[in-house]
Amino acid sequence: LELDPGEGVEQTISSGAVTVTHRVHSVAGEGGSADALTDIEGGQAFDRVRIYSAGGASATITVTHNGSPSANDLSLTGGANYDIDTATKFIELEKRLDGVWYEIRRG
User: How does DSSP classify residue 45?
Assistant: First the structure.
């Protein structure tokens, strides 16, 4: 199922994961607090998604790099986690044939 263009509804992290349905999602931590994003469910090979924090600076989302990624895990440039801790920061990821989401760019 190809991701819908445009912005989807806010996704709340549950056990480190969110499910994407659109190409852009705001992400909130469980209980509206800071949280870590470790997995992205949904999408198919070569889908891209942009993730930003629904809470901005008040609820940092740590996008977590997995050093030995498997399906739905995240592989970030430089092998380091990325904190989305302002309303203007984001990360864009692409799902590849191995099912892993790879960082394309951040801002």
Answer: T
| Residue 71: alpha-carbon gap to chain centroid | 14
Task: Provide the β-strand partners of residue 28.
Answer: 12
Beta bridge partners, 84, equal 61
For residue 9, what are the β-bridge partners?
none
**Residue range 48-91, pLDDT digits in tens:** 999 999 887 789 999 999 999 999 999 999 999 999 999 899 99
Give the C-alpha separation, 85 to 53, whole Å: 7
According to DSSP, the β-strands at 90-95 and 74-75 are unpaired
Q: Which strands make up the sheet holding 61-63, listed edge to edge?
A: 35-37, 61-63, 82-84
The Cα 26–Cα 9 span in angstroms is 7
Tokens of 14: 């549950």
